[in-house]
Amino acid sequence: MTTKKGLTYKEAITEIEEILQQIENDEPDVDQLSEKVKRLSSLVSWCREKLHNTEEEIEKILKEIEKN
Amino acid sequence: MYERFSLSELNGEVKKVLSANFTAPVWVIGEISEINVHSNGHCYLTLIEKGESEDRIVAQARATIWSYTFRMLRPYFETITGQQLTDGIKVLLQVSVEFHELYGFSLNVRNIDPTYTLGDQARKRQEIIRRLTDEGVLTMNKELELPLVPQKIAVISSPSAAGYGDFMEQLNNNPQGFRFYTQLFPAVMQGNQAEQSIMDALDRIYPYEDFFDLVVIIRGGGSQVDLSCFDNYNVAYHVTQFPLPVLTGIGHDKDDSIVDLVAHTRLKTPTAVAEFILDGVAAFEERIDLLEQEAMELVETRFEDERESLEQLTREMSMLVRNMLGNRKNELMQLTWKFRQDTMLSLQKREHNLGKKLQKVGFLVNHYLFVRYQKIAGAQYLLDVSIPRSMVVMKQRLNDYIEKFGQLSQRQLEKEKHWMAIAAQKGEMSDPRNILKKGYSITTYRGKLVKELSVLKNDEMIATRFYIGSILSKITEINKSDKNDN
Does residue B54 sit in the same domain as residue B174? Predict the structure, then answer.
């Protein structure tokens, strides 16, 4: 599953919490449930990745800022 | 005619009047507008007084602190106020009023009361705070939402400050391995230029408002004095208006500066700022970890429930199936019983039919057997009566034959005997001895009879037998022609 570009931490955690809420309320049936869990895991992984790994894009922007 | 003075006489009179009226030092309040410390250690000041509107100077005087006094006054003032004796601050000075004919009016500073400056600063601070409050901007920066994960940080600091190094070290060597992106916007952090320099730095960050998560203003290490630039209205106002949250780590223990007050979050040191940021990021990671864990547990429970209800269903299902099977079995048993009954009935019927048929067949067979028996009995009669009878006849005949044959054989034997006698006579005649007796001879060569000459050669020996005696002769001539007999 791909995460859309430009996702923010806030959007990610909001969606994670929404999914959790849905799971708590037994909303998704068993088939949907695994999709939901997959989505949740991918969001969590996305956050962890972003927390720990360098993003080339940001590095580039920083270099631009330094030049000015 | 009026009295005339020379300038020196006049200055001398002024000096006399002043000395007479200011016999002891007086305490005077003034704002330092200029301050110069000469290389010889003396300190030269310009003191001013501003009007109500603060932009008009209503009084001005020169003042001097001789080096001996300055060496004591300066540390005393700075220790108590926490700031340098510098321009722009209001001071309460004990001065003696002096007038010199050549240099004119000046004040000789003897003592200083730092508590006045402290009070004045507090008052000024209160004024600035009131002004910011009145303008409704005091808490504006605080109202900004702190980003969940502040990773992109604009830093305002002096590049050489120890505090900046501490901050970067703390942030980048975090044990969790979080990644941060920092950009330094250098600024002068103390003295007269600080105010403008800090505002310029904020202005340079402003275009990248969307990029950065927050601004950090840090200072630290080195001199802990002169924080007046952080009690400045303009700097404070800039901070309140800034669209990104501003964190301060200005590094002082005394009362918060106004910039600290209006900043989103005030921390004591640059290191503390770094820790604050790290804590926030760590809290976020902890939160997603917990959410994930919670989700996984929920899902596990959910699957467990599903599994249980499935097992329940399976149990119910197997009960149902068992019942159904039981019913079927009963039905089948009934069917089997019925089938057996039917079959037996049918078999009995068939058996009955078969019995009839057998009866019929039996009759037929008996009849046939009877006919056969009759025939065999006929044959038996033949065997028992007719054959022995014809045997007697045959025996009679055979005896007759034997008798006849015996007679015939006797006759034949006699005939044969006669023939045999004649043959013996003939045989005696053909005996070689009888022939030799008549004058014939027998020639042999190497033990074999000689019947033709082809086996003989000249000089070979041949034997000739006569009726009585024999000779050996050597062949000298062989004549194969029959004509030369003799």
Answer: no
Query: Would B148 be classed as within a structural domain?
Result: yes
Which of A13, A19, A61 is opposite residue B148, by nearest beta carbon?
A13
- Within this chain, do residues B103 and B134 fall inside the same structural domain, yes or no? no
pLDDT for B485 = 46
Out of B152, B287, B298, closest to residue A13 by CB: B287
A56 chain-B contacts, CB cut-off 8 A:
none
Which region among B13-27, B105-119, B159-173, B448-462 has the lowest average model confidence (pLDDT)? B448-462
Which residue from B149, B183, B295 is facing A65, i.e. has the nearest CB? B183
Q: Is A4 on the interface with B (CB under 8 A)?
A: no
pLDDT greater than 50 at residue B302: yes
Does residue B340 belong to any structural domain of this protein? no
Dist. CA A33–CA A39, nearest whole Å: 10
pLDDT-derived band of residue B436, with 50, 70 and 90 as boundaries? confident
Note the pTM of the prediction, 2 decimals: 0.60
Residue B470 sits in which domain range? 435-474
Domain boundary among B266, B287, B308: B287
Please identify which residue in the block is written with the tokens 């989505």: A39
Number of structural domains chain B divides into: 3
Judgement on whether residues B135 and B273 belong to the same structural domain of the protein: yes
Q: What is the ipTM of this complex?
A: 0.89
* Residue where a domain terminates, one of B94, B117, B140: B117
Residues 6+ apart with CB under 8 A from B224: B82, B251, B252, B253
CB contact under 8 A, B284 and A9: yes
Which DSSP helix (H) or strand (E) runs through B159?
Answer: none
Per CB-CB distance under 8 Å, the chain A contacts of B284 are 9, 13, 47, 51
Residue B247's CB: how many other CB atoms inside 10 A?
A: 26
3-state helix, strand, coil in chain A (%, to 5): 75, 0, 25
Q: What is the mean pLDDT of residues A51-55?
A: 90
